């Protein structure tokens, strides 16, 4: 499972699971696209 290790306290843990978002949602947000709340 890919991880960007966005959370220092949990290295190697899926960021999507910890943050409650998918990588597609995160990428869309970073690219300025519309994302659901």
TrEMBL record:
SUPFAM superfamilies noted in UniProt: Adenine nucleotide alpha hydrolases-like (SSF52402)
Protein known as: Uncharacterized protein
InterPro entries registered for this protein in UniProt: Rossmann-like_a/b/a_fold
Organism, as annotated: Bacillus thuringiensis DB27
Superkingdom of origin organism: Bacteria
Gene3D superfamilies: HUPs
């Amino acid at each position: 499972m890919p991880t960007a290790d966005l959370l220092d306290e949990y290295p190697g843990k899926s960021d999507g699971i910890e943050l409650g978002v998918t990588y597609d949602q995160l990428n869309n947000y970073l690219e300025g696209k519309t994302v659901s709340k």
